[in-house]
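From the methods appendix. Each design record in this collection lists the discretized structure first, followed by the designed amino acid sequence. Records were kept in a plain field format so they could be parsed without special tools. The example shown here is representative of the layout used throughout.

RECORD:
C-ALPHA CELLS (420 positions):
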C-alpha cells in the first residue's frame, strides 16, 4: 500500500465496514442481508486488512465456524435470528455446527487469505496454519462432489452468487415448482422489485431448497436427483484460482501441496470444457441437458483471474467495454435478455470487477486493468457504495452501504492503493 493521503471515500468505506460489523462477522448490508454471507465475508476481510489485520482474520475464522463435517462451507450462516430475511434457518435446515443454508458459494476465501497474509506474513502465520486444513477440506468437497469433466458445478442459482443470471435460464425452465406452497418474500420489501429476481425465479429457488432439505443435503442423493446442475465459470475459475493460492499458502507454512497441484491440473482441463466456440467465450453448461447457456457474462471474464489467457476473451472484453460506460456488465448489453437494473442480468458489480481487474493485471493486460480500476473508482465515487450499478448510467441499484463495495474500494479501487 502506498501512503497517498486517504480520500473521504476511504473514510466512508471504513465506516460502512464498521457499521456492518456484528462482532466477528460482517453483514452485507443491514435489512436486506442480515446474516454472514460466505463470499461477501471474504471480500470484507480483504477490506478490513487495509486498516485492521486482526479483524480481517477474525472475519475468516468466524466463517469457518460454520463448516460442515463433509467440508462444505455454507453460503449463509444464521448466527442470530432475524425475521426480516426469507428463507431463514427453519426453511433451510442446514446440518452443520451453526444454523446455515445447505449450499455453498464461490470459494474466494483462500485467495483473500493469501492477500491478507502477504500484507503481513508474520501477523498472519498462525491464522494461515489454522485455516489451511479447513480451506483444504472445503476445496476437496468441491473436487469430490461438484465436478463435471473437471469444471465446477452449482446445484442452486444462489451457489454461484449470481442469483438470476441468464446462465441458468434453461436449467430453471426444466424445474416445475410443483408443491412449493405459499411463502412471503422479504427482499422486495427492502428493494424495488424491478431490481430483484422475479416470482418465476423465486418459486424455483425455494423449490430447490425444499428438495435439498428433503434429501437432508446429502450430496450423493442430490447428484442423482437434483435437476439443476450447471457447470459455471464463476465456480470453476474461482476454485482454480483458490487452489493456486492455497498451494502458495501451503508452501509458505511448510505443508505438502502435492494433492492441490494435481487438483489444479484437473480444474485447468475442466475450465476448457466451458469454452463455447459458437459464441467465442467461456460460458455455462447445463450438465443435465448438455446445452450451452450462450451467455457472455462478467463471470466469463474471470479466466484471467484463474491464470488463463485467451485472445478471444480480450476481444469480447473490448467489445463489451465499448458499449457501456461502466463495465463490466453482468450480461452482454447486446443481448435481448439484457436488463440494466435487474441484479445479475445486466448491472455492474464492483466485486466481480475487482477480480477481473486483478486477473487482467496479472496476465499482462495492464492497460485494460488500469482502465477498469479507474472506471470502477469513478462509478463508486459518483454513485456511492451500492450493491450494484446500471452499466450505462452508473445509477446505484439494490441495497446501499454495501460491505463488499466498500471493501473493494479500500483494497483495490481507491487511489490510496496506488496509481492506476
Ligand atoms: C445476493 C448476491 C450474492 C451475495 C448476497 C449477499 O444474493 O447475488 O452474490 O452473496 O446477495 O450480498
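DESIGN:
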Amino acid at each position: 500500500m502506498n501512503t497517498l493521503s486517504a480520500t473521504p471515500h476511504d473514510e466512508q468505506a471504513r465506516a460502512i465496514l464498521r457499521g456492518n460489523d456484528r462482532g466477528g462477522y460482517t453483514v452485507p448490508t443491514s435489512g436486506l442481508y442480515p446474516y454472514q454471507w460466505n463470499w461477501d465475508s471474504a471480500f470484507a476481510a480483504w477490506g478490513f486488512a487495509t486498516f485492521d489485520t486482526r479483524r480481517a482474520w477474525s472475519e475468516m475464522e468466524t466463517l469457518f465456524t460454520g463448516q460442515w463435517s463433509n467440508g462444505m462451507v455454507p453460503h449463509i450462516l444464521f448466527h442470530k435470528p432475524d425475521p426480516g430475511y426469507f428463507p431463514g434457518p427453519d426453511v433451510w435446515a442446514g446440518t452443520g455446527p451453526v444454523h446455515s443454508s445447505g449450499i455453498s458459494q464461490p470459494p474466494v476465501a483462500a485467495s483473500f487469505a493469501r492477500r491478507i497474509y502477504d500484507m503481513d506474513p508474520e501477523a498472519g502465520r498462525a491464522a494461515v496454519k489454522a485455516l489451511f486444513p479447513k480451506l483444504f477440506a472445503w476445496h476437496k468437497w468441491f473436487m469430490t462432489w461438484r465436478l463435471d469433466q473437471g469444471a465446477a458445478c452449482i446445484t442452486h442459482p444462489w451457489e454461484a452468487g449470481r442469483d438470476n443470471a441468464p446462465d441458468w435460464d434453461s436449467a430453471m425452465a426444466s424445474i416445475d415448482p410443483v408443491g412449493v406452497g405459499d411463502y412471503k418474500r422479504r427482499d422486495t420489501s427492502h428493494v424495488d422489485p424491478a431490481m430483484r429476481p422475479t416470482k418465476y425465479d423465486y418459486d424455483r429457488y425455494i423449490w430447490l431448497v425444499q428438495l435439498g432439505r428433503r434429501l437432508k443435503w446429502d450430496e450423493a442423493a442430490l447428484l442423482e436427483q437434483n435437476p439443476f446442475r450447471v457447470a459455471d465459470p464463476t465456480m470453476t475459475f474461482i476454485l482454480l484460482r483458490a487452489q493456486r493460492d492455497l498451494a502458495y499458502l501451503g508452501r509458505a507454512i511448510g505443508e505438502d501441496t502435492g494433492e492441490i497441484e494435481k487438483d489444479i491440473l484437473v480444474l485447468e482441463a475442466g475450465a476448457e470444457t466451458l469454452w463455447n466456440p459458437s459464441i467465442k467465450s467461456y460460458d455455462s453448461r447445463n450438465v443435465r441437458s448438455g446445452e450451452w447457456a450462450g451467455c457472455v457474462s462478467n463471470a466469463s471474464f474471470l479466466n484471467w483471474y484463474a491464470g488463463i489467457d485467451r485472445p478471444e476473451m480480450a476481444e469480447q472484453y473490448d467489445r463489451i467495454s465499448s458499449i457501456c460506460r461502466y463495465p463490466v456488465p453482468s450480461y452482454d448489453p447486446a443481448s435481448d435478455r439484457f436488463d440494466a437494473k435487474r441484479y445479475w442480468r445486466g448491472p455492474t458489480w464492483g466485486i466481480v470487477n475487482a477480480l477481473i481487474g486483478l486477473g487482467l493485471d496479472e496476465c499482462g493486460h495492464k492497460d485494460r486493468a488500469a482502465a477498469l480500476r479507474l472506471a470502477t473508482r469513478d462509478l463508486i465515487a459518483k454513485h456511492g457504495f451500492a450493491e450494484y450499478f446500471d452499466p450505462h448510467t452508473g445509477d446505484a441499484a439494490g441495497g446501499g452501504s454495501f460491505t463488499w463495495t466498500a471493501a473493494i474500494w479500500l483494497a483495490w479501487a481507491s487511489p490510496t492503493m496506488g496509481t492506476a
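APPENDIX NOTE: The chain has one domain: 8-413.
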